[in-house]
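fyi for ur records
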Amino acid sequence: MANIKKHIKKPRFHSEGRTTLQLGFAALVVVNVLAYLALQHLTLIPFYILLAVTIVVYAVVVNFFRCPIRLFNGETDNIAVAAADGKVVVIEEVEEPEYFKDRRIMVSIFMSVANVHANWFPVKGTVKVVRHYNGNFYKAWLPKASTENERSTVVIETPQGQEVLVRQVAGAMARRIVTYAQEGDECMIDEHMGFIKFGSRVDVYLPLDSEILVKFGQCTVGNQTVVARLSGKK
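which gave:
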């Protein structure tokens, strides 16, 4: 747990955004000071417009790097929670070709730039596999993004012996996937698994006998929304 929690310096903002936020604020100040100096003898209306636009853009970036500390208040045995804030864009039985090589239920959550982009472990257990793949940057909601985009795969074995695969997928804007999970780690619901910078998605592959508790188009809250109930059988 310590190797994951150390990435969270404060409960408000994620450490992955520190440099971006600092450089963004510096750019905001410099651009608006220069605009003011250039326009003060003419008209300040364009300056006020620019100031408003840059503040709104910076506010969006600040919102993106929020890092809420959330505790799940329910029973965690045989429960899978949402790995991210966002919207459910896929619920279907698919062939998982990378690790399981069999049929699984895939639940995909798409994160827009307005969402928190921290990722949580959806189940408790032991991290068995961590793999990172370079790839393309297709739009994250496209089906081929799961297998052709840059991605990181984490496989977790629950205490009941079931395996759940979580895949962080980069999108058209996302250019960095961060995965804190390491093979052999004991992981818990409530812990951060990683972070993806800018629009992206997280796919969770569940056993076929899982009871899915979310619907297509539903908005999820990471580490709070219960996505599925596992059968507990291997």
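Residues 210 and 230 are 5 Å apart (CA to CA). thats all i got for now
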